[in-house]
Amino acid sequence: MQYFVITGASKGLGEALAIELLEEGRHLLCIARNESDRLKKMAAAKNTLLDFFSFDLSRTDKIPGLCEQLFKKIDTRAASGLYLVNNAGVIQPVGRVEDCRPEDVDFHMRVNLLAPMLLSAEFIRRSRRMNIEKRILNISSGAAKNPYYGWSNYCTAKAGLDMFGQCISAEQEGEPDPVETMAIAPGIIDTDMQTTIRGTDERAFIHRKKFVELKESGQLTPPAQAGKKLAQILLSDQFEDGAIKDIRDSY
Fold first, then answer.
1. Cβ contact 57:31 at 8 Å
2. 14 with 85: CB under 8 angstroms?
3. Cβ distance 6 to 87 under 8 Å?
4. Which residues pair with 138 in a beta bridge?
5. Residue 2: is it exposed, middle or buried by C-beta count within 10 angstroms (0-12/13-18/19+)?
6. What is the DSSP letter of 139?
């Protein structure tokens, strides 16, 4: 049995990736604020085990308890692979550093950076004695490398997540049953986050027009297309431990 823990799996890229992973002999453990009825129906049709865990990832103090529930669903004796996909993320607050409210910055960092860090730590700790394939896939962004006016929070969180994955890779080197970690920027995906970006006041995000043009010219990548590529990489030799890749340049 292969087990997949996916955050933000109720819509957008997370849901698209989960759909690609639906297959008999797999168990999807999906973390999201809401459930996806579409995903549940498709899982039933494909005879794939699926559980939704309704959870607010900003409640980082509750993550150890969440992981306790998750791992109760995992039969360590029957598992052949264990995978964590840190996909969930938010774009707000958008604006100049001095204009962002402290509570909004705190929420952003909890969801985009601290939650993936704590989930990864629990994943490694609880799977330490499992002699199987174990992988963590962090969803990165071009914003991790390129500064954007108004995106100080998003750029910083994604850059931090990239470095965190590389630190895990360094720490796991030489372990008898190592966890592999990789970060992939999936491109500009046509999701609710893009809708939010296009609705941002141009004074807070001066690049807004560019993203409107990308939508109007049909240059946004459909979630299903990106989800298919991510699923392929996650389960193949293309998964490069410690690497940070852009899906548009490398695959």
1. yes
2. yes
3. yes
4. 86, 183
5. middle
6. E
Q: Is the predicted pLDDT of residue 156 greater than 90, yes or no?
A: yes
Q: pLDDT (tens digit, 9 = 90+) per residue, 115-150?
A: 999 999 999 999 999 999 999 999 999 999 999 999
Contacts of 241 by beta carbon, 8 Å cutoff, 6+ apart: 169, 172, 178, 180, 181, 182
Q: State how far the Cα of 25 lies from the Cα of 85, in Å rounded to an integer.
A: 18
Residues pairing with 82 in the sheet: 3, 134
Structure tokens at 110: 């909890």
Domain ranges of the chain: 2-189+222-250
Taking phi over 0 as left and psi of -120 to 50 as alpha, with beta for the rest, 241 belongs to beta
Paired tokens of 212: 């409107």
Cα(27)–Cα(56) distance, rounded to whole angstroms?
Answer: 22
Chain CA centroid to CA 133, Å: 19
The CA distance from 135 to 181, in Å, is: 6
Instruction: Give the chain's end-to-end CA distance (angstroms, integer).
Output: 27
Q: What is the CATH number of domain 2-189+222-250?
A: 3.40.50.720
pTM of the model: 0.92
Catalytic residues: 154
